[in-house]
Amino acid sequence: MKAIVDADACVGCGLCANICAEVYQMQDDKAIVIGNSITDDLLESAKEAATSCPVEAIKIEG
Question: CA 37, CA 53: separation in Å to the nearest integer?
């Protein structure tokens, strides 16, 4: 699975990084994805972060 952050939509609230810092990180007031794929042990946390995004800027694709 892979996470994708739409930088244009991201408002930089940091919620995703707070929920799943192993996958998301804040850089220049925008969220970025760390690494190329989400490991199985982090998938639920990464999905929770994506669904918690107030502007729906994160997509999980597999």
Answer: 19
Q: What is the pTM of this model?
A: 0.93
Distance CA 22, CA 28 (A): 18
Which domain covers residue 37, as residue numbers? 2-61
Report the CATH number that the domain containing residue 41 is assigned in CATH: 3.30.70.20
The fraction of the chain above a pLDDT of 90, given in percent, is 98
Both tokens of 47, joined, read: 């999905």
Confidence of residue 13 (pLDDT cuts 50, 70, 90): very high
